[in-house]
Specification:
alpha/beta; Rossmann fold; five-stranded parallel β-sheet; 18% strand; globular; binds 1,3,4-trihydroxy-5-OXO-cyclohexanecarboxylic acid
Amino acid sequence: MKFLIINGPNLNLLGKREPEIYGSDSLAEIESWVKDSLENNDHQIEWFQSNHEGEIIDIIHKAINHVDGIVINPGAYTHYSYAIRDAISSAAIPTIEVHLSDINNRENFRQISVIKDVCVRQILGLRKTGYLKALKLLINLNKTD
Ligand code: DQA
């Protein structure tokens, strides 16, 4: 199966960026940890990071008919990007929203996710384990289809 993992703005700074909130792993370290932790490495998993809303929308469009599931951490776009929300609902690919931190226990503006309702699941506050959990859920979802 083929999966796409999208990380939005400022997530390229993971490891250096507010480690007390987001952990001390870089995005590359999270990627290799997730790869090593998956029991089955036959799946094709593409990791993509961008600081630009349009690039995130473009990669969701390109995924149509090509990937079996998307894991997305849209960073701050989570809280206000109706354009990313529309891209996810238009693509109609099972998508799981992941956040390293528990956005429901942070500032008021972070407690709103405009993409939540178009995702099959929201995983909060599990740091890197959230990505692994999301992938496993998508793999199982596709198995039962
Ligand atoms: C984040 C939470 C967002 O509020 C924030 O803007 C991020 C990271 C998380 O993974 O916890 O960039 O998505």
